[in-house]
Specification:
heterodimer; A: about 60 residues; mainly alpha; Eukaryotic RPB6 RNA polymerase subunit; about 40% helix; elongated; B: about 450 residues; alpha+beta; PTS-regulatory domain, PRD; four-stranded antiparallel sheet; 21 helices; about 50% helix; about 15% strand
Chain lengths: ~60, ~450
């Protein structure tokens, strides 16, 4: 299944996750010690498909 | 959501003066509407199905057109389609993209660079056409009639090179009032109006004295008053002496239309690549499309010898329409709407708007203009953008209040107890919520466990 997030969905998920991380949520990836920015961490998690979030779409074509 | 206007409008458009497309165009049209596909199209669609990808029919059609007559293997076709699909998907916009705002800005910014008052003369013939910003405003405002209505009339392809024929046709189309061919004299003493035709001008307009008399005799208010004089003039006798009646009759006589189509004040010829094209000032699409002019009529009026010659050799040519009705153009969008229907009006809006912008050297992607045209026509009638059109008819109170006369809208909504579903952008900004566009339209959900 080639499910693809739109750029808005990607931004929203990364943003929501970054907020969690910034408030102290446990991180789900190995992070290099110099990486501090929650957004960076969130993006790293997103790229590894580890964020426990998805998106509810109103209408879909596929 | 179903809109009632959408059903009735096309019917209204098709009432009368239906255009008759030429045989070639007709065939092409039928082929399209019945979904007749070419061999190549069928092949492409089959491969697409195997690939489990989708392309719109029109894209497949244009790909097929390019490949027509070229020997290609299926594997190559597959590659081509792969590429086409990739390109197509690349160009799709994401859901929740604010396409309307992008379109508005993309038209608005170049609009600021347009000259405010430009009037342009089309070609040698000094036909005045409104262009630039005034024209764009006209289109978007959906005005009843453009300030400079104009038509473009093409002749049937096989006859287009004939200058005399084109002259003859343009003479037939152009309105001529009595004053164009004759002068008027009011005889107070005998209570008469004399019409004194100018033989030179009569000849140029191809009108005979007899013809002039007939037209006058048929016009309202002049019945039974018209009599022909021996000395090449027409007299209108008022039965009872009255200055008021005399004045009135003289006015009627002066304004009588002798020939031509209503509204078309001038017609000029222009040669375009070996073809003569008639440009007219003023527009009357409905009458022009139902205006019958055959080649036989032309020959009968000008060249009798050739008429008999052709009548013997190829009689079919005599009944041929001189005007190519599939190529008639007008810049009057309202007229297009009432004669040909909404879809034609939509196309006209797109074409006129992009032509206006292009003419000023501004490049605006056609899809922005298409969106505007779609918004203007999607309920089956042509609406303006602005107070009386789209913005004024928004379903949300808050959106309307945000646009204009805030207090009136709010007051009225309060009195009748209107509801606002907070669907749009403006409403949500007023209320202080994220707008339902882009990131704001995404609903994030917790997803407990990932299947590995």
């Amino acid at each position: 299944m080639d499910f693809k997030y739109t750029r808005f969905e990607r931004a929203r998920i990364i943003g929501a996750r970054a907020l969690q991380i910034s408030m102290g949520a446990p991180i789900l990836v190995e992070v290099p010690p110099e990486m501090i920015d929650p957004v960076d961490i969130s993006m790293l998690e997103f790229s590894k498909d580890l964020i426990p979030m998805t998106v509810r779409r109103k209408r879909t074509n596929n | 959501m179903k809109q009632s206007g959408g059903r009735s409008a096309p019917k209204r458009g098709a009432r009368k003066g239906k255009p008759q497309p030429g045989p070639a165009e007709l065939e092409k049209y039928i082929e399209r509407s019945t979904g007749e596909r070419s061999e190549m199209q069928k092949r492409l669609l089959k491969i697409l199905k195997e690939m489990e990808r989708k392309l719109p029919e029109s894209v497949v059609e244009s790909v097929a057109e390019r490949l027509e007559g070229i020997e290609v293997r299926d594997s190559t076709l597959k590659k081509i389609l792969q590429k086409a699909c990739d390109r197509y998907e690349e160009h799709l916009i994401d859901p929740n993209e604010s396409a309307g705002i992008v379109a508005a800005q993309s038209i608005g910014e170049p609009g600021t660079q347009m000259t405010m008052r430009t009037f342009h003369y089309a070609g040698v013939a000094e036909i005045n056409v409104t262009l630039g910003l005034p024209r764009l405003i006209e289109i978007v405002d959906a005005r009843r009639a453009p300030s400079t209505p104009m038509m473009e009339v093409h002749l049937a392809p096989s006859l287009a090179g004939d200058r005399d024929l084109a002259m003859w046709v343009s003479n037939k189309i152009e309105t001529a009032s009595l004053l164009d061919v004759a002068s008027l004299e009011t005889d107070i003493h005998n209570m008469r109006v004399h019409v004194l035709p100018d033989s030179e001008r009569m000849k140029r307009k191809d009108i005979t004295l007899q013809g002039l008399r007939d037209v006058l005799a048929q016009s309202r208010g002049l019945k039974d008053l018209v009599s022909e004089n021996d000395r090449d003039s027409i007299t209108i006798q008022i039965p009872d002496p009255s200055f008021r009646v005399l004045h009135q009759k003289s006015e009627i006589t002066r304004d009588t239309k002798i020939k031509g189509l209503d509204g078309i004040t001038r017609a000029v010829l222009r040669k375009e690549g070996g073809e003569y094209v008639i440009y007219t000032e003023g527009s009357n699409l409905e009458e022009l499309l139902s205006f019958d002019l055959t080649y036989g009529e032309y020959l009968g009026a000008t060249d009798k010898a050739r008429y008999t010659e052709i009548a013997e050799s190829e009689p079919a040519r005599l009944t041929m329409q001189v005007i190519d009705k599939t190529k008639v153009r007008t810049n009057n969008i309202e007229e297009i709407y009432s004669v040909l229907g909404v879809e034609a009006a939509r196309n006209a809006i797109i074409e006129e708007a992009s032509k206006t912008l292009e003419e000023q050297g501004l490049v605006v992607d056609i899809r922005h203009i298409m969106l505007v045209a779609d918004m203007m026509t999607n309920d089956g009638s042509v609406k303006a953008i602005g107070r009386h059109g789209i913005s004024g008819r928004k379903s949300s109170v808050l959106a309307r209040a945000a646009f204009e006369i805030t207090s009136t809208h709010l007051l009225r909504a309060a009195i009748i107890g209107e509801e606002d579903m907070l669907d749009g952008v403006a409403e949500n900004i007023i209320v202080g919520q994220p707008v339902t566009l882009g990131t704001g339209a995404v609903n994030v959900e917790y997803m407990p466990e990932k299947k590995v």
